[in-house]
Amino acid sequence: MTRFGDFAPLCHDTPSYPWCNLFYRQLRDHNSSALVGASADPATAPVGINPNCAIPFVGVDHSLANIANIIACGLSIFVVAALIWFTSRRRAAVARVEFRLFLILYFLTLPFQLITTGSFLRQGSTALVVLTAIHAGLVAATFWALLGNAIVSTQVVEDATLSSLIPFSFFSIAFFVAVTYISLDVALTFTDVFGPSNPSDSLSSIPLFVLTSIWPAAAAVLYFALMLYIVLGILNEVKPVWFFILGAVLFVLSQLDYFLLSKVICRGANAKIDGSFVATILETATVVVLYFGWKSITEDSWDAGIYFG
Fold first, then answer.
1. pTM for the complete prediction?
2. What parts of the sequence cross the membrane (predicted)?
């Protein structure tokens, strides 16, 4: 029976799910007999735990690893770098510093995603575990930065001041450090607090599940709700709403693709590719749309309005 916090279904049925790298190391060290099939040999194991479908390790059966997602991540890096540059040029825009920090954090997740889902580092290796833990920490911090931008946009505190940047930075660092530590403990089990799953094949960690699954979803919902309130309730504008609605739709589609269609794509493509590259493209498209949504509510024509002072 699957319980709340169990990663086993995700690691079996969701190809290229990065947090499975943490549990692979845990099983290898504490119950290696639970690793069967494609996962049995760490030297050739793909991303996942005894996966129903997974992209083979690079070189196995002429595999190019997760080449489609590697390309998607690489292209996304250039797109987000351009957004950071465009944001930096808008010196008078509200929440410019905070939005740029969000973009920088998302930018940093991309090379880590490329590596942790790429199926070209040995499963169970310390390098892959550490990179996956950092990736998890960056994802959690990125979603705080997303929500933090919505909070700052309400002008509850003045943007780009110490009253905004200190708590913004503090919680970004706190999420990163906490989730990275928990992830390392799940994989390396150096304490009993976040250590071995019980039973081991459940791949269970409630804190990790909350911080990598529940927290991002909750932060995204709160962000979109706050931005709709700001645009409709405070700015009394309709046009920018469509950017945020489109962003929400793209984000939902990315998650549906990742968790529902990825296995279908994997099987249909004979394990050459999976849906992770589509999810990456949709997530980056979401960030692009959010940039245009943010840009649309910081136009010069609104600078003298009641909202922006």
1. 0.94
2. 67-87, 99-121, 127-152, 164-184, 204-229, 241-261, 273-294
Q: Supply the pLDDT for residue 195.
A: 75
| Per-residue pLDDT at 93 | 78
Non-local (6+) Cβ contacts of 66 within 8 A are 16, 47, 55, 117, 118, 119, 120, 273, 274, 276, 277
Cα 165 to Cα 244: distance, rounded to the nearest angstrom: 24
For 150, the token pair is 């919505």
pLDDT digits 0-9 by tens, 61-99: 889 999 999 999 999 999 999 999 999 998 877 789 999
261-269: Cβ within 8 A, 24+ apart:
262/14, 262/15, 262/16, 263/13, 263/14, 263/15, 263/52, 263/53, 266/15, 266/53, 266/54, 266/55, 267/53
Hey, what domains does the chain have and what are their CATH numbers? 8-302 (1.20.1070.10)
Q: How far is CA 280 from CA 49, 98, 287, in A?
A: 22, 23, 11
What burial letters (b/e) apply to 48-87, b meaning 16+ CB within 10 Å? bbbbebbbbbbebeebebbbbbbebbeebbebbeebbeeb
User: Is the CB of residue 78 less than 8 Å from the CB of residue 280?
Assistant: no
Answer yes or no: are the C-beta atoms of 243 and 297 closer than 8 Å.
no
